[in-house]
Prior knowledge:
Layout: E1 5-8, E2 11-14, E3 18-19, H1 25-38, E4 42-44, H2 52-61, E5 70-75, H3 82-96, E6 103-106, H4 126-138, E7 145-148, H5 152-161, E8 166-172, H6 180-188, E9 192-196, H7 208-217, H8 221-230, E10 235-237, H9 244-251, H10 260-266, H11 271-280
Parallel strand pairs: 3-4, 4-5, 5-6, 6-7, 7-8, 8-9, 9-10
Antiparallel strand pairs: 1-2
Helix pairs in contact: 1-2, 1-9, 2-3, 3-4, 7-8
This protein binds NADP nicotinamide-adenine-dinucleotide phosphate (NAP).
NADP nicotinamide-adenine-dinucleotide phosphate binds near residues 149, 170, 202, 240 and 241.
Amino acid sequence: MMAESVSVGGVDVPAVGLGTWRLRGDDCRRAVETALGLGYRHVDTAQAYGNERQVGAAIESSAVERDDLFLTTKLDGSARRHDAVGRSVRKSLDRLGTDYLDCLLIHWPNDKPPFSPVRLPGGPPLAETLDAMNELVEAGLVRNIGVSNFDVRLLDAARRLSDAPIFTNQVQFHPYWDQRRLLSYCRRNDVLLTAYSPLCHGGVLDDDMLGRIGRRYDKTPAQVAIRWAIQHEGVCAIPKATSRGHLAANIDVFDFELTEAEMERIRRPSKLRTLAGFARSRLPFDV
Length: 287
Ligand code: NAP
């Protein structure tokens, strides 16, 4: 089944992509190969995930034309200075076996983000990183640039500082963290919201409400959560999965539609549930 697309700024992005955080080695290569075979045309990786080479190998061995794929990577925290941006992206392109990225993101803002146990070293001014990213766009190595884990204030600053449009902000987005204010800002300004951890790291899997609603459509809680995310205008989602069964299920979300009432019932912002989902994922947090 081919993933439907979301269109922002004239660019079409498959509404469901494959997240690859913590997919490593052969598991990563196999999962990406399987996903591409199942119809995924959107893959999310990051320099920090240590799997760009496996993602590249899977793309290389697939029958998918490069132009049919939307491929994102993210700058490592150590690669935000002007020269390091260009150097590290050229290495990413080499590892990924491609001569361009569909999207390059700043992985984290320089200051410590809310809810994150990670303490990040101070980085250069945002303008310096964005200038270097803009040069990569001009050089044709990167088609779109964006950010990740930015709040409204920082996203607004990034938009002002960049000549190229800030195409997306990749943030945690699931029934327990609906990013209402950020999403409204993104929609007003034609910025794609890319939903990461749409399954709340697995925290939604035993959610009774999602289970009840899913039974109406013969869908699992995971499928309902992904459908819920992408049914928001201007949102795509990048669930991570390893097995063929999970990969196939996560892209099988285009044959049903949640009602407005169901969309509202599913939305239950909760810091506690968000943190519980995070705690459920394997620790230590390694990115
Ligand atoms: P997630 O996608 O919310 O959840 C992944 C978990 O759900 C895995 O344990 C997976 O198990 C399980 N799962 C997947 N599909 C399932 C299904 N159909 N039924 C039952 N279980 C299922 O978590 P995530 O990896 O944190 O987020 C997804 C992606 O977002 C990441 O891989 C990464 O690309 C991106 N991300 C970005 C940032 C950032 O800072 N920008 C941060 C976090 C994540 P299996 O693997 O065993 O299938």
